[in-house]
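A reminder from the course coordinator: this example appears on the midterm review sheet, so study it carefully.

Given structure:
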């Protein structure tokens, strides 16, 4: 009997329930670098996980809407936010099928990679993310550019890491957009067995005119 593949919600609920805490709780360094110094306004954090980015943004004065498909992850995020003394709006969405309404001064999409994503799913979500940016606002996209150097056999063969050029092509932005950052960032990465290596990530900061 063929085993049915899990839905995206089932996959991510199982992922977060495996341990009491998955992520460090710290904001992604690329997001901090790209957003620090920007005037605070409204922010949409896509794939917020346990809330590290959303909480950091709220501490900087942003009015944050944090979105994820996993209720478990957002419940943890809400607990962390309460402990940090910040207010965040939490909203569950399957971004491929149900995108939050409204426009925002900042839309952040950090590491939206999924082993169970459908064809063109990430590109579709990122196009919706761009459409949600208010005039004068910015879209910040962080993504893995490759597996860490210590990975010899990728755990998910069908997960692809598009190049910066491919992401820009997928977005198909109009002439009102300006590319402010488009680069690869390299950082140390250690395997669960202690093998030292590095990982390449891509970062884009795009401003809507």
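Designed residues:
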């Amino acid at each position: 009997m063929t085993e049915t593949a899990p839905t995206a919600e089932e996959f991510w609920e199982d992922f977060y329930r495996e341990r009491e805490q998955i992520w460090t709780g710290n904001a992604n360094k690329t997001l901090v670098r790209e957003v620090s110094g920007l005037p605070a306004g409204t922010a949409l954090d896509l794939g917020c996980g346990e809330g590290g980015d959303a909480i950091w943004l709220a501490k900087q004065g942003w009015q944050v809407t944090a979105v994820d498909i996993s209720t478990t992850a957002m419940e943890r995020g809400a607990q962390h936010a309460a402990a940090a003394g910040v207010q965040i709006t939490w909203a569950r969405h399957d971004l491929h099928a149900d995108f939050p309404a409204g426009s925002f001064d900042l839309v952040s999409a950090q590491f939206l990679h999924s082993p169970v994503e459908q064809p063109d799913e990430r590109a579709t979500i990122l196009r919706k993310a761009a459409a949600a940016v208010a005039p004068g606002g910015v879209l910040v996209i962080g993504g893995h550019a490759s597996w860490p150097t210590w990975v010899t056999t990728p755990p998910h063969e069908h997960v692809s890491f598009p190049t910066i050029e491919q992401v820009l092509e997928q977005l198909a932005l109009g002439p009102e957009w300006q590319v402010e950052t488009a680069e690869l960032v390299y950082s140390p990465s250690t395997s669960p067995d202690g093998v030292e290596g590095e990982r390449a990530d891509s970062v884009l900061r795009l401003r809507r005119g």
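The mean pLDDT is 91. The first strand starts at residue 42 and ends at 46.
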